[in-house]
Amino acid sequence: MYKALVDEPSITIVPVAREGEAIPVAAGLFIAGQNPIISIQNAGLYEAGDSLRGLALGIGLPLVMFIGYRGHNRKGDTPDSAAKFLEPYLHMWRVEHFVVESDDDLDRVPLAFDLAKKTNQPVAVAIGTEYAKVDSEAEGSEQE
Amino acid sequence: MITYADACRVINESRGEAVSVSTMTQIKYWNAISQEPDLDISIGNAMSKASSVALGVALGDEDRTVFCLDSEGSLLMNFGTLATIAGMAPKNFYHFVFNNGIYAVTGGQPVPAPGVEYSKVAEACGYASAYRFDDIESLDSELPDILGSPGPVLIEIIVKAEPQGEGADQTWESNAAMPLQLRALRKRLTGTDDWGPGGPFI
Which of B40, B38, B112 is nearest to B75 (CA)? Predict the structure, then answer.
């Protein structure tokens, strides 16, 4: 996914040093008239908690957050707590989310953009690890 | 040692139509003298992230000068921002760091290492230039030239600490003001009033 974003000329990548920067940078880009998304991993979303609270939920930011669903599988139990906590964490913040695990799920992505715009709230798209063949460790927010 | 009021006065004199993103104690002094409230945002409701918001604005509107009125406590909490800003190298970005050596809004506890020279850290990270001032006369005389040079620039200002005795100025009222300020700024920058209500405050 990261490589696809880098290769797309209409998208500018903003590499950040930690996930907590991604939401505030996206908020600034949106204020200046751009169309940002963020792309981080589930563990990074936990790190970004105060930014999610203050600068996405708190201001009503229509932001689609692509979240790498590290550790998620359809086989049941996972030893990875990053996966176990993702959906409970999103529910706790009242953040709506969609799970994308295969090409068949891709029609959920425009639904996420529609919902974010309609509600002026952040919406998560959790990318399952089976789908993300290259589990990018890159972190960043992007603008169009 | 410089007072907050003097520093904000001098910065405001060279402001023009720059966007100003402020946080912590700077908010009170800046808002008291700013004549462009639609170009001001006060990040009182997201710890340490004023510089990140300001970076986003600077990248999103490259023709607009952006000031961040940051503090050393906030910068320490979001130290990676210096590398992120240096990496993107926005020429329109001026990063003021008010250094008072304490966490004023939580009662005046000292920061972990009071001797850090943030201007040197910024230079090491790759800012275009960085300065450190501890007297108002030098800041006053040099700031116009500094703002005429390309960013990202960090301007560290050693200020007289003003610990708040009664705790943080973090009221429900100020939290509710932030989303309205952000919408006003988007309207000013884009010319469209298309960001409707959302979130717990509006």
Answer: B112
Q: Which CATH number fits domain A2-143: 3.90.930.60, 3.40.50.970, 3.40.50.300, 1.10.287.3510?
A: 3.40.50.970
Separation CA B188–CA B168 (nearest Å): 30
Domain ranges in chain B are 4-190
Rounded CA gap, A83 and B70, in Å?
Answer: 35
- CATH 3.40.50.970 for domain B4-190, yes or no, is yes
Do B95 and B68 touch, CB atoms closer than 8 A? yes
Taking the model in full, what pTM does it have?
0.94
Q: Where are the domains of chain A?
A: 2-143
pLDDT above 60: residue B65 = yes
Would the pLDDT of B96 be above 50?
yes
Report ipTM for this prediction. 0.95
Average per-residue pLDDT for chain B: 94
Q: Is B84 on the interface with A (CB under 8 A)?
A: yes
Chosen from B24, B47, B53 to mutate, greatest number of chain A CBs within 10 A: B53
pLDDT for res A139: 45
Interface of A with B (CB under 8 A): 12, 14-18, 20-21, 23-34, 36, 50-51, 53-55, 57-62, 119-121, 143
Alpha-carbon gap: B70 to the closest alpha carbon of chain A (Å): 14
- Eight-class DSSP state of B196: -
